[in-house]
Each structure stands twice: as C-alpha cells, then as structure tokens.
Amino acid sequence: MQSAARALAVAVLAATAAHATDGVIEINQARALAGGVSSCDGPGFPVDLCEPGSYRLTSDLAHPGDLNWVVFIHVPGVTLDLNGFGILGGNTCQYGGLGWPTSCAASALTIEAAIRGGDRTTILNGRVVGNIAGIHVGAESIVRDVLVTNNGGVGVSVGAGTVVSGVNAISNLGVGLECRAGCTASEVVATSNSTHGIQLLEDGSLTHATAMSNASAGIRVGPNAQLSQFSSVSNGLQGVVAGDGASISTGAIRSNGWTGVPACGLEVSGGAGFHGVVITSIWGGPSATVCSANGVNLGSNACQGVPCP
Amino acid sequence: MRSRFGAVLAAAFVGAAAHAGDGVIEINQTKALAGGVNTCDTPGFPVTICDKGSYLLTSDLVRNGSAVPDIVVSIGVPDVTLDLGGHGVFGDNVCQTGGTFWPMSCAYSGTAWGAIYGLQRTTVRNGRVAGNAGGVSVGDGSTVRDLIVSGNGGTGLAVGTRSIVSRVTVTGNLGHGVFCWGACALEEVVVNNNQANGIELLGPGSVRRATASRNGGAGIHSAGGAQISHFSSLSNGHQGVVAGDGTVVSFGSIRDSGWADQTACGLEASGGAGYHGVVITSNWGTNPATVCNTGAVNLGGNACQAGACP
Fold it and tell me: Which residue of A45, A69, B15, B220 has the lowest C-beta tally within 10 Å?
C-alpha cells in the first residue's frame, strides 16, 4: 500500500516536472535525453514536438554540435520559450582574415537547424550557439529576443508574414537573418556572417538594423521592401542591395567592399528610391556611391561628402 | 491512510489549477468545459470573465464544430489581462480563397465579436487565435501584443480607440486584418492575405513598421490625421495606401496595387495629407503607379514609377 502511494506520488511529481502549473510543457536536458516530451518524442535528440501548445526550456540543451535538429517542431502553432537558456552545440568554425567563418566542423545543407518549426511558430528569449544551423520556422511566425551565433548554416530563417524583433545573428556560416516574403523585422544586428547579413527576399519592412563585417552584402532586400534606420559597415560586397520598387531611407553605408570584388555602397534597381542615405569610404571597386539601374535619388543623400547621383 | 493521501493530492491539484501562486487565475480546456472560472462562468463556452484581474491560459482552448457562440472567451468587465501563455484559441473554421490571395468565404462567418471579446483596457498577449468565427475584439485603451491571428471568419483584430498593438501577424481572415475604431498606435505589424483592408484606422493614430501584402481591400487605410511610416504595401486588391485628410505618409514602398480594382491608385491621398519618401511602382490595370491626389501635398523625396510623383 505504502509503495503504491509512493509510486503514485512519483508519477505525480514526474507529471509536474513535465508540465509547469501554467500548462507549459517543460523541456530540459534530462527530459530531452529520456524522451517523452511529447507523444512522438523518443529518447535523445532531437526533441520532437508533435502537439501544438506552449513549451519552455528549463535548462540549456547541450549536444556535440553535429545534429541535424535539436528541437524539431512537427506541427504549426507551437510556442517555444527558451526562457533565457540556450541550445548549445559543440560545432566549431574556422574564421578567415576578414572575420567571418569560412568553414565549420558541421554545416547545414538546406533544412537542418537547431530549432526547426512549422507555420505560426513563436520562438523567444534565448541563445542558439554552435549548432549545424540556427532557427528555421515557417510562415506567420514570431521570433524575438534571440542570439544566434557560431552556427554552421543560416542563423535565422523565417517564412512569409513573420514578425522578427530583437535578433542578434553573429558569425554564422550563412545568412544572418533571412526572411521570405512580407515580414516585418526590427531591432536586428547581423555581424560577421559568411554570406549576407540580412536578407528579405520580397517586400516587407526592416527597420533599426545593423549589418557589419558580413562576407557578402550587409543588407539585401527584394522588390517592394522598406528599409530604414540602418547602418551597414565593412561588409565584403555591397552595403545595401535593393530590388525593384524598394524604399531605402535614413541609413549609413560605409567602408564596404572588403573582399576586393567591385561593389557599390548602395545598389538599387527598377524604380527603387533612396532618401537620407549617407555613403562613405568604399574599399576598392567603384567609389563610395550608388549603382543605380533605374533607381531614383529622392534627395538628401550624400556620397563621399557630396550629393549622390 | 490512502484516502487521506488521495484527498491531499486532489486538493493540491484543484488549487493549482484554479490559481497560480501569483494570484493569476488559470484557464484551460477542462476548466472551460466545467465552468466556474469566474463567479459568472457556466459550463462550456464561452468562458465568461466578470471579475477584473489577470488570467492565464494553461492549455489551448479548442471549440470545434459550431459558429455559435462566436465568442470563446467573453470578458465582461474592463481592466482584464488575458495572457495566452503561448497557447491558442482554436476552432475548426475553414476558409476558401477562390483563386484570390485572400479568403472569399469561410464555413463560419463572424459577427462583430471575436473569439476573444473584451471591453475597455483589456490586455491580450502571447499566443494564437485561429480558425474561429472571428479573431480578437477589445475595447478602448487596450493593449495587444505578440499575437498570431489567422484563418478566422471575421476581422482578425479589432481594437478600440487609444489602443496599442505591437508584434502581431494577422493573416487570412475574412475581414480586415487590424481594425482600430479611433486613435491607435500600431507597431511591428504584418497584415497579409485578409479579405478586406490590411489595416483600417477609423481615426488618427500611428502605424509604424508594417507590412501589408495581398489583402483584398487597401493595404493600409486611414480616415485622417494619422501617421503612417516605415511600411511596405504589396499586391493588394485596391489601393496600396489610402491617406485621409491630414495624414502624413513617409518612408514606404507601394507596389503592384489594384489586383481587384484596376482603377485603384498606389497612394490615394486627400485633404492636405502629405507624403514623403514614398516609392510607388508597377500597378495592375489601367491606373498608373502613382498618387491620386485631391488636395494632398507632395512633401518631396517621392518616386512614382521611377519618375516624379504628382
């Protein structure tokens, strides 16, 4: 009888460990290794989540660094609160003389990521460091307050219609932050990534962004995007590349073209307009200016101390 | 011995389910069906809240198979905070797009109410509202943050005047994406693929850092006296942006407007509205990618199809 009661109490305690009193399912290293975080989750990594709902890390998740996925979210409608913890892999990268990683022990091909999620996923409040890649979520998601660094692939990749806020993407072997169509992103820092710092493939809004020392363009926005309140400095190629119909305003572009490949400070096309942009001191290649294929100078721009063309 | 142990255990569970240790009242599917969340709450939906305070979802709320009642959580008093806790309020509504980018019909069409309905000074945050007859509707002076609202049979998010909305993505709803009854502050907003306007401001207010794409109406529509800046408006059915009297529009990109109404302009501005730093390109249909201007002011620094704007 006593042992039965004890067994019941243990079971209750186990359930309590799995679910916090607020109904959030807790994930930690011990539970990840034991399995059973959700109905489809086996022992070890990845932690598979196959039920919508709210999940929270209660410890770091540590692993050697070569896993394709550490947390794999198989369904839409999941919130994963990293709760100040991190997904910490042991991946190591080598860095060239210009500061960005040139190779990593483990690198991503396409869809690998430490956190892989579907549509309408929310990821917040933590770190993703030293993995095969960082965060990859589907459309209409929210990603905020994350630091993603030293991963062997894209830092943060989000689907169309996603809101991104407070992302710091550093030294990833790929794009720092990439959004497909129609995202709103703000408060983004992308430095020392091995391709572009920030890329919006089509439309969307990017504000309060800093891109520095990335191997390709600092910021690349597709057709109809809006970019404002930004700084793009010391990137390997262009400071900013803007597609047809984009609007670029209030930004500083400086000392780009580090790789020596001819690149402009600002490259615009197809009726894109720029206003309030200051471009100075390009390395090599064209002068510190705008390369425009039917772009429009909207006024109040300065290129190396004089009005831009 | 066993019964006493069991009683203690049961009491502990009930206490934990009703109130978190911080005084927040918890709501979950079991409690919703059982009733008693509040003094006025009866079994089943809607969960009725009639006491001011702070509430937290501890599971998804799922209400399938019926459009009635529209409301899943009905907040009948002002000054309530509803934290969705990363959970959602879900129905099984299904919408059809009919070859457009936005829904043309849904199995359930909403009334003016949302799945979450609140009065003045309501805070709703941190979760999802999907597949219901309507989305979220709250009163004056409310705050809505960190929400994903999609696939509902009415307006996605309706807020009263003097409300704040930030970090929301509102997509695929059979109505407006975000609708404000007066003066609101909207920031970090995505409104895509909604059946009516992406953002509708009935009064003044501020829209910043917004993406409005592929909505059936205008991308962003303001009645007047608003400030709209740092935005992208792409491939909407009617105008990219409508700026009512005295509105200032700045630093935005408008492209491919007029999918449903090929006489619509990229930017329609009136009554002393001003625009600055706006780039308009490539409309659909007969109307050029430009500004339809009735008494509005070109503040400079605008481009229409790579040339000067009127």
Answer: B15
